[in-house]
Amino acid sequence: MIRFAHFSDVHLTSKHLGWKVRDLFTKKATGWVNVKLLGRGSRFKHAPLVVDALLGEFRDGAFDQLVFSGDATKLAFENEFQLAAAKLGVGDAALPPVVAVPGNHDYYTRPAFRAGLFEKHFAPWLDGLRIDHHTYPFARKVGPAWFIAVNSATPNWAVWDASGTIGHVQLERLEKLCERLNAGPRILVTHYPLRTAKGNLEHPTHRLRDHAESLDAAKRCGISLWLHGHLHRGFVLPAGDAIPFPVICAGSCTQTNRWMYNQCELDGHTLRVRRRRYDPAANRFDDAEEWTMELPVKSSQAHS
Predict the structure, then answer these.
(1) Residues 6 or more apart whose Cβ sits within 8 Å of residue 253
(2) pLDDT digits (tens, 9 = 90+) for 203-252
(3) What is the pLDDT of residue 129?
(4) Is the dihedral of CA 51, 9, 199, 153 positive or negative?
(5) Rounded to the nearest 5 degrees, what angle is found at the Cα of 189, between the Cα atoms of 57 and 54?
(6) Residue 238 CB neighbours (<10 A)
């Protein structure tokens, strides 16, 4: 049995962002207005305190693995990445190992993407088996299971565009990578979801643009479970006809009144999920809901 925790959408920021003239002509300017003047910033005003409680759970929870599905920052300033990496304990030997992928806020502008700021500051969380020199996708074996990290975030120029894509080139690498993996449940990690909590596609400006191609690739790869963030209310979609494996959204671990993350136990192909919700009065996380489900397995993966 392995124990892992899945958390997402922390959205940490810094008092001193480190503005440059070129930033005034990017989404950072409109994003700052949204954060400072239109209320988005107030939703995460308790984030540093919540993260302290979260890391306390991670240090004491005897986890084999942590999974972070993106959006460490608000506006992808390097000062935010520096603060977020320090606050989240990147490189802290007292924490369990972490598998991470970037979110759309970590790739908020093309300069942040081209500079590889997420990859620079979260490098210890990006360690794994990969194809040649390409950072994504990568896979890490934990007990009998494979955690497979796929980057679904893209820099978008339009202020209203929060969509993402994996891209056919990365999907091809994903299938090549999966061919190298031996038996065991395969857990895919992205920032973007396949569906909403009701099983619908997201709005075009917020969705995974190549969701159909990504689902097809996941099927061919024998994926047993898909973990993601992006949507700030956590949910579980059981396996069904359209998607033959469960899909679990962690929600946001720091947004006020939505703050949550998931603790998971995988025993063979039986997955037990416990949602933990933050209690601001006690400054701690408490149990909220639980699910148990069987993960699908291809015949070729049935035996180690």
Answers:
(1) 7, 8, 9, 10, 50, 51, 54, 259, 260, 261, 278
(2) 999 999 999 999 999 999 999 999 999 999 999 999 999 999 999 999 99
(3) 97
(4) negative
(5) 15
(6) 13
CATH topology of domain 2-301: Purple Acid Phosphatase; chain A, domain 2 (3.60.21)
C-alpha Rg value of the chain to the nearest Å: 18
Q: How many residues does the chain have?
A: 304
Contacts of residue 216, Cβ cutoff 8 Å, sequence gap at least 6: none
Contact assessment for residue 72 and residue 122, using Cβ atoms and an 8 Å cutoff: yes
Q: What is the domain partition of the chain in residue ranges?
A: 2-301
Residue 244 in tokens: 């033959």
CA 287 to chain centre: 21
